[in-house]
């Protein structure tokens, strides 16, 4: 905990001041919700009936950003202690592996010069100026670039022309296209963090967790092919408690599959044959979620989307051990461009069917990105595991610690956001002001309003909620986030 | 042409001897067909009625492997001349970039040592022994590893930890997740080879061409969503002339989409609203194909799968310029593990819809693999384009030439296969012996028969053809192919 305070004390101070000591908090959620609504006084009860349905969350009565500040004081001590007990004094992002520095820096510089001259990789969204449109609609995790720029060779991969040309990675594995090294590093990191059980689980790799989400639907849908050909069995209902991740309905339905069909809010669902998607912490509101449906016929299945169940976003309170759990490097390490997700799957038959989906959809998953993801995950684990060669002499060369960096940034950004919201006076962050904020005119379309100020966000309507809310990505680069904050503060 | 003979003269000599001077030929097809059938005399007409329907091919009356040998003499002079006119005397796979050799070799050795010690990439299918099961069912293109092992740094990529973390590659492009460098190298290679038009086309990237195949079906299917919600418009029929690639039916139907549905052999199709898949050279039989259906209502669409339309497999006789053309590095350069395919698409609205498919399916495509594919394609183009810095002094440092390597290997392997078939006496290669071969007993299941001899192949039944045929992949590693040939020769 001391470690966390080193990085965040000043920030927490700022936050507490801006929050008036009301006990609200830290903030580890991946995105924030703003609401711009009626100046007319509303009964307080209207807030608890808000479509975000915050009180329904079983993990506690508070939204995640409030939980999270408590977390930074008490709740997550156990987990964080595990993660941080090797913390040393040097700042994480001035790390160099002492033993290799000279030679490898030369080599690295040489390589980079050569690579840069011959091949120019993209840099993502263009750099912003104070006049730019700020796009916080997508959760583009470029916030983490800063961290990885400072890790040097630790997360660099070199791929010779002849490497991993085959379709196959391990013909003895259920997931025959999974690189064994990625399998190892996924299991290692979960053991280090303690956020998910891996023993007795199959690891499957996908082109992002989106592909594995589809694979899970495919694997869990009843197999009508066993019946007569052309059997018109009804597609199974896919549900999730609102507000749900805006991509769930689109990804479920875009091919109009006869196997599964989006059926909306899990709370409004009356059937007994379903696939319930449980996103926890939830996108968009950061709530800790558990399944809300309970199948009496045994035809109900759950898929746990744990993309944000990492220490930079939320306290790790228990080792999740569900039937199907989805993760992705996009959110855990910030490497969205590598498109690597993984699933931890208990049942072998389900693992086989999910693998079959990926085989039919894309004949496996990029091995280059699998090797890169393995390297990146290894670098994260290295940050929290004492390595045998770390003697007293080299102890100052502390490896970079991703979750520390991530938490510090999230605390800082939530603090800035709250200050901006306070300065503006026309928005609220749910539960911070215990109700709707005042505004000079009715704003029924908060995303539209912000778009008029060149801030792109995602409307609550896309999450099965209310258009007076928007989701704001918290994971963009500093420059874009700073301009967003300044612009938000100036809205009156 | 002289250049080609340097590499293949000895091989051609061997082949011609084994073929008895009958004018059969070279062989550029990606896979070969074997048939083990009745010893009972069959009328010759039974061959032309064979389910492979060889004579239907409009590109000529001969199967591709026969066309190809003429090609090596005459037909492809224009194209090959273009490709080979910079050919120099040193063997292609002893190339080193003279200017960089010393320093970069050191760096490369250092890097490889480091990479190898920290991360062990997979090697694909395990190494084989004379007693192994030989799996030639999948078209795993490991044959090309030998070539890329000799290219040194030319196709090596180095990816720092912070690179291409964003979801986005170029927000101004229709295909917003396409790396601009891959776009450039795709266009450059098509211009060098002359196999497809690129001006006026959109380049789209996919996780292998399989994903783009699905994207094309999605984009070409009628948009029922414009009509009433829940509209039960019939799925559009997807057809291809038999024998067709065995994955087409499975990939089309596995999600039981309401948008498109597999409808089998294009020749047997009677409707007027369809998507016709034209695979040319065709998988499995190497035939040069054109669309066979002609829509009267304007509701017919075609997708051209040109995965094998490269000089190592077939003569490049014209610059293809169809509405949608699919390519993949799996077959063009042998990098199946990178899972990179691309589409050349004329119509902007179709390109948008295909992009939308990839967005919903996997939120883009691995940028690491895109950068690697760009580097690999650049290395191929470099082999055939004179570069400005190539003065007389460095001219002997000929860059490696992929298509030369590929052609040489294919000629060699077809020659070995024909010799083995002749030695065995129980198989035929279609049109080589003008009919069914003799065999001591009826073999209705050729794949099953070969499986009994630990040779895994893909049955003709999977291609909409006859189980007495099998497809044999020609692209495996030398050791596996050699064992296959020896084992085949010994079957009596």
TrEMBL record, chains A, B:
<comment type="similarity">
    <text>Belongs to the alliinase family.</text>
</comment>
<dbReference type="GO" id="GO:0016846">
    <property type="term" value="F:carbon-sulfur lyase activity"/>
</dbReference>
<dbReference type="InterPro" id="IPR015421">
    <property type="entry name" value="PyrdxlP-dep_Trfase_major"/>
</dbReference>
<keyword id="KW-0663">Pyridoxal phosphate</keyword>
<keyword id="KW-1133">Transmembrane helix</keyword>
<keyword id="KW-0472">Membrane</keyword>
<dbReference type="InterPro" id="IPR037029">
    <property type="entry name" value="Alliinase_N_sf"/>
</dbReference>
<dbReference type="GO" id="GO:0006520">
    <property type="term" value="P:amino acid metabolic process"/>
</dbReference>
<protein>
    <recommendedName>
        <fullName>Alliinase C-terminal domain-containing protein</fullName>
    </recommendedName>
</protein>
<dbReference type="InterPro" id="IPR015422">
    <property type="entry name" value="PyrdxlP-dep_Trfase_small"/>
</dbReference>
<dbReference type="Pfam" id="PF04864">
    <property type="entry name" value="Alliinase_C"/>
</dbReference>
<feature type="transmembrane region" description="Helical">
    <location>
        <begin position="63"/>
        <end position="84"/>
    </location>
</feature>
<feature type="region of interest" description="Disordered">
    <location>
        <begin position="103"/>
        <end position="132"/>
    </location>
</feature>
<keyword id="KW-0812">Transmembrane</keyword>
<dbReference type="InterPro" id="IPR015424">
    <property type="entry name" value="PyrdxlP-dep_Trfase"/>
</dbReference>
<dbReference type="InterPro" id="IPR006948">
    <property type="entry name" value="Alliinase_C"/>
</dbReference>
<feature type="domain" description="Alliinase C-terminal">
    <location>
        <begin position="134"/>
        <end position="491"/>
    </location>
</feature>
<dbReference type="InterPro" id="IPR050478">
    <property type="entry name" value="Ethylene_sulfur-biosynth"/>
</dbReference>
<dbReference type="GO" id="GO:0008483">
    <property type="term" value="F:transaminase activity"/>
</dbReference>
